[in-house]
Structure formats: C-alpha cells, structure tokens
Design goal:
CATH architecture of chain B: Up-down Bundle
Radius of gyration of chain B: 20 Å
Shape of chain A: rod-shaped
Number of strands of chain A: 0
Number of domains of chain B: 1
Structural class of chain A: mainly alpha
Number of helices of chain B: 7
Order of helices and strands of chain A: H
Order of helices and strands of chain B: HHHHHHH
Structural class of chain B: mainly alpha
Number of helices of chain A: 1
Distance between the termini of chain A: 88 Å
Largest sheet of chain A: none
Oligomer: heterodimer
Strand content of chain A: under 5%
Shape of chain B: globular
Largest interface: A-B, 29 and 39 residues
CATH topology of chain B: Four Helix Bundle (Hemerythrin (Met), subunit A)
CATH class of chain B: Mainly Alpha
Chain lengths: 54, 232
C-alpha cells in the first residue's frame, strides 16, 4: 500500500500566509480609518475657528 | 461619518463565523487527498479567493462604466473598493497556488499560461493604485481609473478561460482539462462541501470588506473636501 506524502508543512505555511494577509489588510483598514477620523476632527475644529474669526 | 449600520455589524460577525467554518471544513472535515497529501487542502482557499478576486475585477469594470455614464463619485468609491479588496484576495490566490505547486509540480513557479495571466492581472491592479496616486484632481483620477478598470477587467475572463483554451499544466476543477494538466483530482462529496462552502464564505467576506472600504472612501473624500475648505 502506498503511503500518503507528508506535505503538511506546505499546508500550514499556506494557511498562515492566507490568514496573515487578511489580518494585515483588515488592520490597515482600521488604522486608515482611525487616522482619517483624527484628521477630520482637526479639520472640523480648524474650520470652526476660521468661521468664528470671520 | 455616519455611524456603523447594524447590518454591517451583523455581516462582520457572520464573516468571522463563515471564515472559521470554511477553515474547519478545509482543514478537518474534508478527507486527505491520497496522492498530494495535506497540501491539497490549500485548494479550498485558493479557489475561494480566486473567485472573489476575479469577481471583484469584473465588478470594478462595471462600476467604472457606471461612473463614466453617471459621473457619480459614489461609483468611483465602489470601484476602488472592489479593486483593493480583490487585489488582496488575488495575492492570496497566487501565493497559495505557488505553495501547492512546490510539492505537486516540483517548482514554486512556472510560466504556464494560467500562472502568467494571473501574475499579469495582479500587476495590472497594483499599477491601478500607482496611477491613481499620480493624479491630484479627483474627477480626472476617477475618469482615468474608470477607463483603466474597464480595460483591466478584460484580464479577469482571460485568466479564467486560459486553462480551458490553451495547453497548460494547471488542473481544471470544473470542465475538461488539458492532457498536460498535473495535480488534478476528483472531488468526493465531503470535498465538494468544503469547496462550495469556501466559495460562499469568501463571497460573504468580500461583501463585508467591500462595504468597509466604501465607507473608508467616503471618509477620505470628506477629509479631502474639508482640507480644501480650510485652505481657502
């Protein structure tokens, strides 16, 4: 009877890379959103200040 | 920015659950393929990510056409979201394919028609972001992006069809394959369950990520607009 080749290392590497890529992408989206929200708050404050001066 | 819709929160939870179930079905439930061993299990995520990858490129092309007709910036945001999410998924497809190829074909990479068209497709969409980065005017950027995705969208059906039209070593899952194909296998019913669930799971995750990316695009546009107002 033929034995099944042990290719588990490749499988583990594949799934690790797949999950890591999805994780990094999700994290990048979260960080971009966080930075944009901070920018938005600063810009809104600046705009309000400018309106007050006028 | 508008508060997060409840439906999106539900979709987030569903996405995590279906991803977990898809991983369970692929890694535990599906039987081990006798010739290739456990590496065959990457096939479920390989095809699942390829499906949403290519689907997204076609969706982006349709959004591009719609933008050119309507000039509505919402379609530009939709197009960017589709391209970004699909590029990420298609990267996973290529990496998983390469990992599978090492034990199956005894090489990490070969310039086979399918691998070549897949690599070209990925590079086309990486270049899409470089193109957009180089254009300041939002309307011009959206117009150029729309035309680009329209032309780039042709690479998706070509990549899908190439293994059905040319002599290739890449196996065909559905339909008849080339005589040169290496690493093909017939699926058992449990394998089919894992396979179709992976397609479903990645479709749900794709919609979820697209939605998040569209919202991010809206926020970006708002910030850009405010920057203009403040600098005036």
């Amino acid at each position: 009877m033929e034995t099944i080749p042990d290719t588990s290392g490749y499988m583990i590497a594949g799934y690790l890379i797949a999950f890591a890529t999805m994780g990094i992408y999700t994290l990048s989206m979260y960080l971009r959103k966080k930075n944009l929200k901070r920018d938005l708050e600063t810009l809104e404050a600046l705009e309000a200040e400018q309106t007050k001066k006028k | 920015m508008q508060s997060k819709p409840i439906l999106l929160t539900i979709l987030d939870v569903v996405s995590i659950i279906v991803l977990g179930v898809a991983a369970y079905l692929a890694l535990v439930f599906a039987p081990t393929e006798l010739v290739m061993g456990n590496v065959q299990r990457v096939f479920y995520f390989h095809v699942g990510t390829a499906w949403v990858g290519l689907l997204g490129f076609v969706v982006a092309a349709i959004a591009g056409i719609t933008y050119l007709v309507t000039k509505d910036m919402r379609w530009d945001r939709f197009e960017v979201a589709a391209v970004e999410v699909s590029t990420m998924f298609f990267f996973i497809t290529i990496v998983l394919g390469s990992i599978w190829a090492r034990p199956a074909w005894n090489t990490w990479w070969t310039w086979d028609p399918r691998l070549t068209t897949a690599a070209v497709t990925e590079l086309i969409y990486i270049a899409y972001f470089m193109l957009r980065q180089g254009i300041e005017d939002p309307e011009k950027r959206a117009r150029f992006g729309a035309v680009y995705t329209l032309l780039g969208g042709l690479s998706a059906p070509i990549t899908f069809m190439v293994i059905r039209l040319f002599r290739t070593i890449h196996p065909v899952v559905i339909g008849s394959q080339s005589a040169e194909a290496q690493g093909g296998f017939s699926m058992t019913s449990d394998m089919k369950t894992a396979f179709f669930f992976a397609l479903f799971a990645f479709t749900v995750i794709f919609i979820d990520l697209m939605w998040h990316r569209i919202r991010l695009g809206s926020l970006q546009e708002k910030v850009e607009q405010l920057k203009l107002n403040v600098s005036m």
